[in-house]
Design brief:
β5, α5 and β6 form a beta-alpha-beta unit. This protein has 508 residues and is of the alpha/beta class. The longest helix is centred in the N-terminal third of the chain and has 25 residues. It is 38% helix and 13% strand. α6 packs antiparallel against α8. The chain folds into 2 domains: 58 residues; 391 residues, no CATH class. An 8-stranded mixed beta sheet has the order 7-8-6-5-9-13-11-14, sandwiched between helices. A 3-stranded mixed beta sheet has the order 10-15-12. Strands 1-2 form a two-stranded antiparallel ribbon. The protein has 16 helices and 15 strands. It binds uridine-5'-diphosphate-glucose (UPG) and manganese (II) ion. Manganese (II) ion binds next to loops. One of its GO terms (molecular function) is cellulose synthase (UDP-forming) activity. Belongs to the glycosyltransferase 2 family. Plant cellulose synthase-like E subfamily. Thought to be a Golgi-localized beta-glycan synthase that polymerize the backbones of noncellulosic polysaccharides (hemicelluloses) of plant cell wall. It is found in: Golgi apparatus membrane.
Length: 508
């Protein structure tokens, strides 16, 4: 049952205390208290003052109509002076009016979502789904490895049960320097993650944090200084290797994974590489004794004359490799030049996906990216705030904004073309990892999934997963990530975008 009521002067569109279903609950649902008069995990609210805005917009529309009517009724007669100027001006006014109406369609019905993470935590305790986070990088020169691992560390430090968190770095540059940087990050994470959680550090990209923080927490100044020193050491090590362009033999001896770069491999022609640097299953621990998130390096096979479909190709490879290793039910993909600026956002996303009534209608949760490197007054609008703060909320009012290609949570199965019904959320909770195979077995199996020929004569990149069809990169980079989510595959889906609470969730 649905109804509307007013709360804190905002109209609530959906409120569903009874879970809204008339079917028998499953055993698992009963155990978890699902459907027992539960409150919703998120609310959708229309913009404050919407009616006022709509009245204003209607008055402008009326004025436009009156101008056009005046123009039409007073066209100078044939041969009269100024006839063509009049017609020209009328045409311009028609076009401007039309353009204005188009822009208003995005401003007519803005909606905002509000999540209730406390309800989520009480209801599900720690019974959360596995989350796999994909970070993509393509070139160690353009995307410095120290920036890449800052992104990786920021998402490894999310407030989420670490045994359920896996981070994958896809390296289309196939670079041993990036691999080295990730190895350093896997060590630094042992100190960084517990430190962040103990002192509630934000943001959790160490680079961004130490740039902003001039001093540490009062009760942890010593630790702060130690971590800062550790970070600076790591930064120096990585930058000096990156600047020299070679990984020397002393470093190579530190990990057997470097043997992958011993042959004639080049960034554009090399074998598939998968290295599990931290295996969350085998109890790898941080310095405080907590389990670490899984961390995987992946470089898909490259051959000189094979098209690799840029980021879309990397995403599809990541999907296959991760399904072999951690098989998280939820996937977040980020670019290597953005970092998490809010460590709670996985739970925000779960509030949407795991909502009993509406969860199955949510296709993806998109985090707006906020840009760091714009000029002081952002004269040219490079931070595209109008898109993330207005247009997307306007589109959301009609069912959802566009997928912009990153900073986005999806269900794994939705990327694989699964149809959803109202039992979806239990799948989010109940997925299991392969605890029997060794890391080596997993790596070997995963490698076979990222060869150049794997997708040949299959639906990958076409009907299933991230579409290759628009990958005239970079011209269509925004649509290249467009999903193979044709209506026939996922008929029930809405799209969703976070706001206010999650503002600045990603920066870069
Ligand atoms: O062959 C490639 C090329 C690019 N990338 C990665 O893809 C990401 C995006 O590439 P970038 O060159 O940074 O594209 P932008 O134009 O800056 O990014 C826009 O377009 C991307 C592709 O749709 C979206 O992911 C971004 O959110 C959006 O800001 C980066 O992490 C790259 O490392 C790869 O993994 N493999
Ligand atoms: Mn970018």
């Amino acid at each position: 049952m649905k109804w509307s009521f007013t709360c804190q002067h905002k109209q609530i569109l959906s409120h569903r205390p009874n879970g809204g279903r008339n079917r028998e609950r499953t055993k698992q649902e009963r155990e978890m208290g699902v459907g027992e008069g539960k409150l919703p995990l998120f609310e959708t609210r229309v913009r404050k003052g919407r009616t006022l805005y709509q009245l204003y917009a209607l008055s402008v529309l009326l004025s436009i109509c009156m101008i056009l009517a005046y123009r039409a009724l007073h066209i100078p007669a044939d041969g009269e002076k100024g006839r063509w100027a009049w017609i020209g001006l009328s045409m311009a006014e028609i076009w401007f009016g039309f353009y204005w109406i188009l822009t208003q369609s995005l401003r007519w019905n803005l909606v905002y979502h509000h999540t209730f993470k406390d309800r989520l935590s009480t209801r599900y305790k720690n019974n959360f789904p596995g989350v796999d986070i994909f970070v993509c990088t393509a070139d160690p020169k353009i995307e410095p490895p120290i920036m890449v691992i800052n992104t990786v560390l920021s998402v490894m430090a999310y407030e989420y049960p670490t045994e359920k968190l896996s981070v994958y770095l896809s390296d289309d540059g196939g670079s041993d320097i990036t691999f080295y940087a990730l190895l350093e990050a896997s060590r630094f994470a042992k100190a960084w993650i517990p430190f962040c959680k103990k002192y509630k550090i934000e943001p959790r990209s160490p680079g961004a944090y130490f740039k902003e923080a001039s001093s540490g927490p009062d009760d942890g100044l010593r630790e702060w200084l130690d971590i800062k020193r550790l970070y600076e050491e790591m930064e120096n090590n990585i930058n000096s290797v990156a600047n020299s362009g070679v990984v020397n033999n002393d470093i190579r001896k530190q990990h057997k994974g470097f043997s992958e770069w011993s042959g004639t491999a080049t960034p554009r022609d090399h074998q598939p590489i998968v290295k599990i640097l931290i295996d969350g299953r085998d109890g790898a621990r941080d310095f405080e004794g907590n389990v670490l998130p899984t961390l995987v390096y992946m470089a898909r096979e490259k051959k000189l004359h094979r098209h690799h479909n840029f980021k879309a190709g990397a995403m599809n490879s990541l999907l296959r490799v991760s399904s072999e290793i951690s098989n998280g039910a939820l996937i977040l993909n980020v670019d290597c030049d953005m970092y998490s600026n809010n460590s709670e956002t996985i739970k925000d996303a779960l509030c949407f996906f795991m909502d009993e009534e509406k969860g199955h209608e949510v296709a993806f949760i998109q985090l707006p990216q906020h840009f760091n490197n714009v000029t002081k007054n952002d004269l040219y609008g490079n931070s595209i705030l109008a898109i993330s703060e207005i247009d997307f909320h306007g589109l959301d009012g009609y069912g959802g904004p566009l997928y912009v290609g990153s900073g986005c949570y999806h269900r794994r199965e939705s990327l694989l073309g699964k149809k959803y019904d109202q039992t979806h959320k239990l799948e989010l909770v109940a997925r299991e990892r392969d605890y029997k195979s060794t890391s080596l077995d997993l790596e070997e199996r995963a490698k076979n999934l990222i060869t150049c020929t794997f997708e040949d004569n299959t639906q990958w990149g076409n009907e299933v997963c991230v579409s290759h069809s628009f990958s005239v990169y970079p011209f269509f980079s925004l649509v290249q990530g467009h999903l193979g989510r044709k209506k026939k595959q996922i008929p029930m889906f809405n799209l969703s975008i976070m706001n206010k609470q999650q503002k600045n969730a990603l920066k870069g």
